[in-house]
Amino acid sequence: MAIGLIDIDSKIPNLALMKISSYYKGIGEDVEFVQPNKTYEKIYASAIFTKSKGKCEELQNIYGDKIEIGGTGWDINKVLPKEIEFSKPDYDLYSVEDIASRMRGIMTKERKLQKATEIVNAGMGFTSRGCVRECGFCFVPKKEGKFRHVAEIKDLLNPKSNVLILHDNNLTADPYCIDKLKEVKERKLIVDINQGCDVRLVNEDIAKALSEVRHLRSIHYAWDLMGFENQVMEGIKTLSKFIKPYRHMCFTLVGFNTTFEEDMYRFIKLREMKVDPFVMVYNQKDDKRLKHFARWVNSRIYKSCKWEEYEPWIKAQVEYNQISLF
């Protein structure tokens, strides 16, 4: 019998499952994603998003004691045993087709396969864990604790390519941030700072170091809380001296503790700075106005019509206003 794996909701290869696979293959076990009508000695599943709790419960009902579920979407306190946590990921676990099938958005089949190949062949992992911040909407402080160093850039490389997906939660808070970026540059890597940069901590030295490495996609950061407006604006100005604003992406959390007027204000400020915003609705909050706002912003519909002219929202307002009254 083999070890079975279930990736419940990851959009990119799931690092925990890759490490579990590597560990068990290393001790001579067969490992594969769960196949229908097959029996497994043990099954490991991972959920990234809290919206997947229902799916996790279904899997528990099906497999009982045989399955072990982890991931932020299920249990933020659960961690991998040390012997698995420090295993090198199994970079052969996912196929290009696996990842391509999880991709959303409008793109040709060829482009989807190209992007999936890039991701599957990339190195990935953390050089640090934890975060110096304690944001009320974030799982990281509870799950990972205080900021600490855990690995070197060289430990994360995949010999298949020079792409590195860096999962560090707050690279710009790292005392070794510039040294790590210099190593990325010297190794001629293409980096995706997957969790974004804390733009409030970007000074000219960090901005210069960020500009000297090749990025897999737009450099991204967040403006989640209104109270940090000045620091975010200063960070964007500093970064923009070295990396043009059209190469920036700013994630904007809505539905947590801001009003819609504050959400719109942040959108307008970012566009004034020529930065592309990307709206994230907190915990998939069931608010039709926020969902319409997210689509209007994220699909770049704002470039062709004003919010007040956005037809899907115009049609939805009558029902929305009736619900709001109650």
Automatic annotation (TrEMBL):
Question: InterPro entries under this entry?
Answer: rSAM
What highest taxon heads this organism's lineage? Bacteria
Which protein are we looking at? Radical SAM protein
